[in-house]
């Protein structure tokens, strides 16, 4: 995949996600892009590439990822289908990329992220 972001952008996204995790909340893709100062064009596309990179790195390191805290606006407020497809690719999820399976798995990942945030120094 063509990487359309810099290590600095990824660092800023990670920082915002860690802050959000400590606050025990979630953040929309748009708000995350704004807070992490991701430049255009194609801000959301660039952000999703960064989130995918973060999720892959965390998986490789055996870490719980804060990437699950970035969600789509709307109901339900869960990540888009690509997030669940990547989880399937990584062997972390076998359900549907939408609906009740996705909501339940996302809820579990968010709870793990919150727990990780409260046990980190």
Brief summary of the model shown:
The protein has helices at residues 7-22, 29-35, 43-60, 81-89, 99-119, and strands at residues 27-28, 70-71. The chain has 121 residues and is mainly α. Helix 2 (29-35) crosses helix 3 (43-60).
Fold blueprint:
Elements lengths: L6 H16 L4 E2 H7 L7 H18 L9 E2 L9 H9 L9 H21 L2
Parallel strand pairs: 1-2
- Spatial extent as radius of gyration: 13 Å
Oligomer designation: single chain
Which band does the percent of strand residues land in? under 5%
Gap between N and C termini? 34 Å
Poorly predicted runs are: none
* Beta strands, count: 2
Shape: globular
Describe the main β-sheet briefly.
Answer: 2 strands, parallel
Structural class: mainly alpha
* Distinct helical segment count: 5
> Could you estimate the helical fraction of the residues in percent?
55-70%
How many structural units, i.e. domains? 1
* Order of secondary-structure elements: HEHHEHH
Give the strand order, joined by hyphens, for the main sheet. Answer: 1-2
């Amino acid at each position: 995949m063509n990487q359309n972001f810099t290590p600095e952008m990824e660092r800023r996204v990670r920082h915002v996600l860690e802050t959000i995790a400590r606050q025990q909340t979630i953040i929309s893709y748009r708000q995350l892009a704004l807070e992490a100062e991701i430049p255009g064009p194609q801000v959301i596309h660039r952000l999703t590439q960064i989130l995918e990179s973060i999720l892959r790195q965390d998986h490789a390191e055996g870490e719980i990822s804060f990437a699950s805290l970035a969600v789509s606006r709307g109901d339900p407020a869960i990540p888009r289908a690509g997030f669940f497809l990547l989880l399937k690719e990584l062997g972390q999820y076998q359900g549907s990329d939408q609906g009740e399976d996705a909501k339940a798995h996302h809820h579990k990942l968010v709870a793990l992220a919150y727990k990780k945030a409260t046990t980190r120094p």
